[in-house]
Amino acid sequence: MSSIQSYGSKNDVSHDSENIGRVEATGAGDELIRLGDKTYYKHELMSAFGGTLNVERYAPYPKHQFANAAALGLAAFALTTFTLGLYYAGAMGVKIPNVVVSLTFFYGGIVQFLAGVWELAIGNTFAGTAFASYGPFWFGFGSIFIESFGISEAYKDEPEQLANAIGFMLVGWSIFTFLMVLCTLKSTVMLLALFVTLDLTFIILAAANFTGKASCQTAGGVMAVISACCGFYNAFAGVATPQNSYIRANPIALPG
Questions:
Q1: How far is CA 203 from CA 6, 28, 102, 132, 183, in A?
Q2: 13 falls within a domain
Q3: Is 168 a member of any domain?
Q4: Is 43 domain-assigned?
Q5: 171 is in which domain, residue-wise?
Q6: What whole-number distance in Å separates Cα of residue 132 and Cα of residue 116?
Q7: Is residue 34 situated within a structural domain?
Q8: Number of domains the chain is built from
Q9: 215-245 pLDDT, tens per residue?
Q10: Which are the contacts of 36, defined by CB distance < 8 A and separation ≥ 6?
């Protein structure tokens, strides 16, 4: 058997393209993974995989000139969603969303979109599709609360129509997010949890807009905070390495 390679950090791995013709699990409890003629510990392989938002578990890491843009996109998602979740949950009695709107444009929107472009450039289709979609979502959602766009003004005499229209938009995003959920079933527990809780957030907030129930809106805000925490975890998994942190995330692989 070939010697066991250390796979604890992406910076330790050559990005040169290699054709991997065989992938198999060996050792006691399948603790070793053989990729072609090289053998890695499973937990180290998963540590390198966590935080990249690459759902193709055994795909060779693409050769590129950028750092891990997925971690940046996840951080932008997490912080913006966390703040929005607290607003919808009614934390500290905040009723005016203007501070959240600033994040939707200058962090959640711009940064996630750019992260998506970078991920597409390096061949990570899933991450690119997710970030390049959710970034513009933040732009669109934030613009509802900006007077110069005239969106809220158009419904000033029909507030129920505005609520229903926002509900329709959120339903559409829940469908898109469900498709993303299906693509994370072979990734890690926390990555799957992120998209499941995000999908539930869209569904609950859509219901809140349709029904007008404050309790439903609060529940949606709480679910958004949970989703944001999953995002923070995945972002940390993509940033923390043996070279910069004594504490690192240990992603748990899903079966498959």
A1: 42, 43, 24, 21, 19
A2: no
A3: yes
A4: no
A5: 69-239
A6: 4
A7: no
A8: 1
A9: 999 999 999 999 999 999 999 999 998 899 9
A10: 18, 19, 20, 21, 22
